[in-house]
């Protein structure tokens, strides 16, 4: 490896070499696609979402529930044709959430964040652009996968299947992709707040899986008041077509879920601006 | 141009930088010297806006760094620890950095060639040696063809060829009229590269002098004289411009007189000399004398089997 001498600069940097929002987004897109780990995590999310959806649909087709069996209250249940085809969401959310954590906390563990913030000293565009890239990529990819998995699942179910044109069905299927993209964003916010991969993943699992479980142990009056507003339950409302009393309406669920994202991302941006990098 | 004014940084009770004021001017290489833990890296991080000062201000080319619209055009920096994602290739790292400011792809190839990383540009930065990592950091610093170049310990991990290359690079950048600010804990390296020195210890400014002046002051040559008649000789030599110190019996350290002057005077007085030799103070020794009181981590004197410890902060 020999270093060149001070080579004459032939490329002139344009005077307008300023930081703009779209340039930061472009930079984050380069960062996203140039890490093998992000592509692997996204691929794994796709495989889980499609694979489990088709597997649950197959199980449902071969073991149809006894007529009259009440379906599990609220949320997608593997006992109905929609719920079966979205059966991968619960596990896929952990992968996409971990991807979100890695994309931010990985910059802290490697020191990359110092380069990122030196290039964009206003700081907030870095995190906002990361959120934009991950949300866009995962929405496009996962919405496609969710629709295809739904269609595949209904084909497996044959005449027991339902149509994508049914009331609320398309909204529920796309809602699953919105929820997953949102969990990815949540992972990013936690990664930025905790700046530590293990801690952020643990917090994400706690928020999505442990807190709802603990809430259900509270007295009914408390549990009923809190439970529907938790991020995971609010998100579930968006992807179900059965309404139940202990669940928000799809619109309200979406609003509450997005509200959680705004709170977490907002807190992450405040922390990013205030803390030493 | 970098202007640091009354800059302080405290982490809890610990003072990292205290009331620092200095200016780094364009057209010359300014060395930033101090023992480990003196606050050099902290100061550089504040210049780059990564750490917020507890008090005081720092501007780059007349503005706080955060206010610059084209930051990579203003200052290119290599920071102490690696600031690269280990999973990304060198080229992709530079492409992502360049994209933030719309710097063309051709410039990325140009800086890769400048630092001699062409053959490994497609490899993951995590597999780079320390020297290759430094070169990648320097490539990133040069991306925006910046007016100010700030490098934290750039010769760390470089082979002799690389060190020579850095020296030439820094001088060439300064000759082009850029502001060049380089930190090091090695005085000898700075004496060869820098035109001006800013020396700090325990976060405080110790010296802000041209290298030539520092070297002249440091090169305080002494003469070692050994004589059985040391006491008489001392009386003979002392004068207004002359200092004589004696360690062991029969040994004198004389400064302010040449070998010849001492020899002649001794001969004239009929005094016997057993040794007459010139002692040169190295720059490293001068630097250590200057910063001795400001060294944060000193090896405790070892006694018997007690291991050398570090002073607790």
From TrEMBL, chain A:
Residues in the signal sequence: none
Presence of the UniProt keyword DNA repair in the record: no
Top-level taxon in the UniProt lineage: Bacteria
Listed GO CC annotations: plasma membrane
A GO MF label: ABC-type transporter activity
Database matches in PANTHER family: INTEGRAL MEMBRANE PROTEIN-RELATED (PTHR37305), MEMBRANE PROTEIN (PTHR37305:SF1)
This protein's name: ABC transport system permease
Species this protein is from: Micromonospora lupini str. Lupac 08
Automatic annotation (TrEMBL), chain B:
Keywords from the named record: ATP-binding, Nucleotide-binding, Transport
Annotated ABC transporter domain residues: 2-227
InterPro entries the record matches: AAA+_ATPase (IPR003593), ABC_transporter-like_ATP-bd (IPR003439), P-loop_NTPase (IPR027417)
SUPFAM superfamilies: P-loop containing nucleoside triphosphate hydrolases
Pfam families: ABC_tran
An example Gene Ontology molecular-function term: ATP binding
Gene3D superfamilies reported in the protein's UniProt record: P-loop containing nucleotide triphosphate hydrolases (3.40.50.300)
Keyword Ribonucleoprotein recorded: no
Keyword set includes Nucleotide-binding: yes
Family according to the record: Belongs to the ABC transporter superfamily.
Protein name: ABC transporter (ATP-binding protein)
The organism of origin for this protein: Micromonospora lupini str. Lupac 08
Organism lineage string: Bacteria, Bacillati, Actinomycetota, Actinomycetes, Micromonosporales
């Amino acid at each position: 490896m020999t270093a060149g001498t001070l080579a004459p600069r032939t490329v002139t940097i344009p005077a307008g070499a300023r930081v703009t929002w779209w340039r930061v987004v472009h930079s984050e897109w380069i960062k996203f696609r140039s890490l093998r780990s992000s592509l692997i995590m996204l691929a794994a999310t796709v495989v889980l979402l499609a694979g489990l959806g088709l597997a649950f649909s197959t199980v449902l087709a071969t073991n149809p529930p006894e007529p009259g069996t009440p379906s599990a209250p609220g949320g997608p249940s593997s006992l109905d044709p929609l719920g079966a085809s979205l059966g991968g969401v619960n596990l896929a959310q952990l992968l996409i959430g971990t991807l979100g954590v890695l994309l931010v906390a990985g910059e802290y563990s490697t020191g990359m964040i110092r380069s990122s913030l030196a290039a964009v000293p206003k700081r907030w565009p870095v995190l906002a652009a990361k959120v934009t890239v991950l949300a866009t990529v995962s929405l496009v990819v996962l919405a496609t996968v969710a629709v295809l998995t739904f269609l595949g699942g209904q084909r497996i179910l044959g005449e027991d299947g339902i149509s994508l044109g049914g009331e609320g069905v398309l909204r529920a299927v796309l809602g699953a992709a919105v929820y997953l993209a949102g969990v990815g964003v949540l992972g990013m916010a936690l990664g930025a707040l905790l700046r530590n991969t293990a801690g952020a993943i643990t917090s994400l699992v706690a928020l999505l899986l442990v807190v709802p479980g603990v809430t259900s142990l509270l007295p009914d009056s408390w549990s009923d008041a809190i439970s529907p507003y938790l991020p995971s339950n609010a998100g579930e409302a968006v992807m179900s077509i059965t309404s139940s009393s202990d669940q928000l309406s799809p619109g309200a669920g979406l609003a509450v879920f997005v509200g959680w994202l705004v709170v977490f991302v907002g807190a992450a941006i405040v922390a990013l601006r205030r803390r030493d990098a | 141009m970098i202007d640091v004014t009354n800059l302080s940084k405290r982490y809890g009770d610990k003072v990292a930088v205290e009331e620092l004021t200095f200016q780094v001017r364009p057209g010359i290489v300014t060395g930033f010297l101090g023992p480990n833990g003196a606050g050099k890296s902290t100061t550089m991080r504040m210049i780059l806006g990564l750490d917020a000062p507890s008090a005081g201000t720092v501007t780059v080319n007349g503005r706080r760094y955060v206010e610059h619209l084209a930051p990579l055009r203003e200052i290119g920096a290599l920071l102490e620890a690696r600031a690269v994602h280990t999973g990304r290739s060198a080229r992709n790292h530079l492409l992502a950095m360049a994209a933030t400011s719309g710097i063309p792809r051709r410039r990325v190839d140009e800086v890769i060639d400048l630092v001699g990383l062409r053959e490994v540009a497609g490899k993951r930065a995590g597999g780079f040696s320390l020297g290759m990592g430094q070169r990648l950091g320097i490539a990133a610093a040069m991306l925006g063809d910046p007016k100010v170049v700030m490098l934290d310990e750039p010769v760390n991990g470089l082979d002799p060829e690389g060190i020579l290359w850095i020296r030439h690079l820094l001088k060439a950048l300064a000759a082009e009229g850029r502001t060049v600010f380089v930190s090091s804990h090695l005085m000898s390296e700075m004496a060869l590269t820098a035109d001006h020195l800013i020396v700090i210890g325990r976060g405080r400014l110790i010296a802000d002098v041209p290298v030539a002046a520092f070297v002249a002051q440091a090169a305080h040559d002494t003469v070692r004289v050994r004589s059985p008649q040391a006491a008489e000789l001392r009386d003979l030599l002392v004068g207004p411009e002359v200092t004589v110190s004696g360690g062991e019996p029969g040994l004198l350290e004389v400064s302010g007189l040449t070998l010849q002057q001492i020899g002649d005077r001794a001969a004239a007085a009929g005094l016997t000399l057993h040794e007459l030799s010139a002692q040169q103070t190295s720059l490293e020794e001068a630097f250590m004398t200057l910063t001795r009181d400001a060294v944060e981590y000193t090896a405790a004197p070892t006694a018997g089997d007690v291991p050398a410890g570090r002073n607790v902060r």
